[in-house]
């Protein structure tokens, strides 16, 4: 039986599932297409759970790593033919061409296709056939966390969605796969009923707003401290290199965004509460709403698709600027001294 509770916020209801029936897919061949960050973690979790997993990959270092870990590796077309459950674990930006060339021609009716993000289906870059189940199981953490939580007997949050319910049991299949990779059925695990659209919007919104701003705000904070006589080492350790951010993030997850402040000194709390809001200016609020507009209307998706077609000129230029900048150079010296880089 699926266990869920209803959560209401501004008239939006989400179902939270804490368990599922993994036996629905236990006798099936699961083809993991790609063996990168998420693919390797999920494949290992599935195998450890007793599921039959094969890997579909081009001949590269990822295929070699999969073989070294004891997996059988096939070409992508062959893996799709052999699999009852086909998991799209290759990067979003290469999925459309791989789908057209290697996956769609080899899908047969009744298969289950699992996407780990909603991106390509939501934007229409991939148009799956109607005679397969098309589901989404999107972990809210990187592959390392997916694997570590599984090994430590813990679950993790996923967003689940259905784009095509050919079998009539697509939602059950989404929960089954969530259970199979260790997301639910364990402490801390939850599957949130969502959609390909919602997952795409929320994921990109984080990347385009607070997550990116956070990095550049820390970098500018470093510049300000150094300009005011603080040593590069002390500035960097204070802002991010000491590991304090990990403890703060963990406290946010466990206690809540603002509730975790109670664990700080009153001086720290007062500084957070008086200065924090000053950075969220009207201009910042407008920028955040512009970010979500460009996500929802496809502006960003078209921009990123064009960037890839042109060979990543802007992407490469931005990385070059970062790596030539003072923050990167100073950080490199400190991290080498600390033994974190070679």
From TrEMBL:
Mg(2+) 2 binds at residue 203. Residues 195-341 form the KARI C-terminal knotted domain. It comes from the Archaea. Pfam families: KARI_C (PF01450), KARI_N (PF07991). The keyword Ribosomal protein does not apply. It comes from Vulcanisaeta distributa (strain DSM 14429 / JCM 11212 / NBRC 100878 / IC-017). Mg(2+) 1 binds at residues 203, 207. Residues 5-194 form the KARI N-terminal Rossmann domain. This is Ketol-acid reductoisomerase. GO terms for molecular function: isomerase activity; ketol-acid reductoisomerase activity; metal ion binding. Keywords: Amino-acid biosynthesis, Branched-chain amino acid biosynthesis, Isomerase, Magnesium, Metal-binding, Oxidoreductase. GO terms for biological process: isoleucine biosynthetic process; L-valine biosynthetic process. Its EC number is 1.1.1.86. Gene3D superfamilies: 6.10.240.10, NAD(P)-binding Rossmann-like Domain.
């Amino acid at each position: 039986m699926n266990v869920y509770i209803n959560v209401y916020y501004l008239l939006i209801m989400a179902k939270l599932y804490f368990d599922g029936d993994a036996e629905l897919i236990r006798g099936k061949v699961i083809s993991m297409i790609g063996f990168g960050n998420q693919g390797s973690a999920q494949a290992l979790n599935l195998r450890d759970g007793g599921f039959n997993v094969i890997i579909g990959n081009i001949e590269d270092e990822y295929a070699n790593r999969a073989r070294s870990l004891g997996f059988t590796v096939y070409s992508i077309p062959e893996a799709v033919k052999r699999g009852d459950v086909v998991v799209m674990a290759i990067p979003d930006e290469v999925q459309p061409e791989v789908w057209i060339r290697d996956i769609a021609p080899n899908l047969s009716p009744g298969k289950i296709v699992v996407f780990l993000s909603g991106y390509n289906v939501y934007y229409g870059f991939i148009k799956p056939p109607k005679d397969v189940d098309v589901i989404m199981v999107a972990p809210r953490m990187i592959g390392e966390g997916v694997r570590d939580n599984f090994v430590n007997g813990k679950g993790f949050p996923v967003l689940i969605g259905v784009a095509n319910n050919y079998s009539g049991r697509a939602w059950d299949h989404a929960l089954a796969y969530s259970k199979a990779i260790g997301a639910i059925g364990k402490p801390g695990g939850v599957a949130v009923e969502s959609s390909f659209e919602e997952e795409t919007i929320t994921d990109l919104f984080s990347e385009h707003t607070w997550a990116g701003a956070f990095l550049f705000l820390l970098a500018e904070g470093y510049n300000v401290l150094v300009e005011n006589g603080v040593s590069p080492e002390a500035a960097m350790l204070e802002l991010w290199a000491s590991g304090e951010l990990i403890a703060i993030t963990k406290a946010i997850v466990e206690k809540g965004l603002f509730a975790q402040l109670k664990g700080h000194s009153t001086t720290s709390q007062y500084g957070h509460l008086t200065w924090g809001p000053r950075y969220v200016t009207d201009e910042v609020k407008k920028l955040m709403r512009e970010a979500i507009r460009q996500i929802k209307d496809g502006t960003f998706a078209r921009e990123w698709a064009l960037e890839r077609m042109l060979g990543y000129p802007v992407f490469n230029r931005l990385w070059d600027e970062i790596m030539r900048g003072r923050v990167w150079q100073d950080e490199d010296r400190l991290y080498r001294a600390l033994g974190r880089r070679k």
